[in-house]
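Morning F.,

Quick status update on the modeling queue. The single chain you submitted on Monday has been processed. Sequence for confirmation:
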Amino acid sequence: MAYEYYEILGVSREVSVTEIKKAFRRKARELHPDVNKAPDAEERFKELNEAYDVLSDPKKKSLYDRYGTPEAAQGFGGYQAVDMSDIFGGMGDIFSSFFGGMGGRGAQQIRRDGRDMGIGLRLTLEEVARGAKKDIVYDRLATCEECGGSGAAEDGHEVECPTCHGSGHVVSVQHTFLGDMQTAVTCPDCGGAGRTIDKPCPECQGQGRVPDREHLTIEIPLGIHDGQQIRVQDRGEAGMQGAPAGDLIATVRIDPHEYFERDGDNLHTRANITVVQAMVGADITVCGILEDEEVPVHIPEGCQPGQTLRIKGYGLPMFRRNNKRGDLLVHVTVVVPRKLSRKAKKTAEELGKEIGDEVSKERAPLIQ
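Structure tokens below.
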């Protein structure tokens, strides 16, 4: 084995730990035995693991730089298998999950439930009030059609793992300055299952699942709230080798509305009325949240600016409450005309005298 670790990783001696990790990721993608079918791919991948194990550890790297031998670098605990779930973490969930979170041939042998997946789902207030069906597209690991999710080729079978002989564990020997230390670890070829597939499916490399783009329609229940989640069973990641699939969890986010503001199941809106309507009262209509909905609003005599009028049953549908609705709260704004004709001004002054609100140039009293 070539022990020039810097050469194996393709980096210089002055490189940082971050750059070492990046270099390892690039090389791992190229040399992983589940991707690279060259006869020496597995051996080169082991060399890569060993080089990374030394150069990513400051103590081991210091010893290696000082003495230039792998034995010196391993003096603090010996060779350790690299945690591929950590290394491939930055390459995206699809890639790391496809390799099963482990290095070597063991990645294609582990039977594991699929993970739940989460997405954000943006809705308008109208969709909350009227209901909707949302078409979404997302990437996931889906069941392999070639093998039906079993992970085995057409003539492949599940057999006892030849590495651990069905126990799911192997003995790891570490050479330290205190002597050899033996530890029972999970079998790298079966992931602890004790069983492997003798002939993996060529399409999914024995995983039982492959990357796919999913199209799905989600039905939105009436009155759903911001932050609530919709769970769609079995539409998350497919399980490995026929294991149960995870769920898709859509978290609802509701966009602000131009005219309405939500308050639980109630809605707030504004309505402009004239001075005359405020004085003598009126019956007006405002737009509701439902399509073509007109809401009758009675303006009481002497309605004040900023007064709130509650219209029962014209708010949002209550979530899972048999189509019951909240209320609509109308906040009144009295619009005062900016200019009056002479005739209108005279009429207003006469009206003021009539109702005891005569126009005066005196200082207005302070509001108590």
